[in-house]
Amino acid sequence: MNTLIDSILNTPIGAAIAYFSVAVLELVVFLSVFEAVTRYKCWDEIRKGNLAVAMATGGKIFGICNILRFCIESGSTIYESMLWSLLGFVLLMVAYFLFEFVTPFFKVDEEIGNGNRAVGLISMILSVALSYVIGVSVL
Questions:
Q1: Can you say whether residue 75 is alpha, beta or left, with left for phi > 0 and alpha for psi between -120 and 50 degrees?
Q2: pTM, two decimal places
Q3: Residues 51-68: pLDDT tens digits?
């Protein structure tokens, strides 16, 4: 079985489909985890037009995919890429909690949930910026 999978992954189309599938799966799983740890419901708030939540969620989506991009570019196998991107996701989660910790004068989740676009923008920029640092460091 591994020989068949490895032979498929050695073709450009097979590798593209595999990495795309992993990216979609990771987005679903990792965004579900983010949804569980935030006080607001991302997709409900986005449906209501909450731009702050949309920006914060968009930053998380970009961050997750950017970390996986670094894994793919490094030449890691798909299995290694999944492990490295999991570590990258954990580091993004740590950064999210640190953001909450270093702003004791307001609650990040509460502000984003209430539509504070400034906090949503900073959250997005932190996710994007740190995904570059995490991406080059996890490999």
A1: left
A2: 0.89
A3: 999 999 999 999 999 999
Radius of gyration of the chain (CA): 16
Q: Mean pLDDT of all residues in the chain?
A: 91
Range of the domain at 57: 2-137
d(CA 38, CA 118): 17
Number of domains in the chain: 1
Task: Please report, as a single letter, which amino acid is at residue 82.
Answer: M
Average pLDDT for 86-100: 92
In this structure, the number of other CB atoms found within 10 A of the CB of residue 16 comes to 11
Cβ atoms of residues 108 and 123 within 8 Å: yes
Distance CA(104)–CA(24), nearest Å, equals 34
User: Tokens at residue 127, please?
Assistant: 């996710």
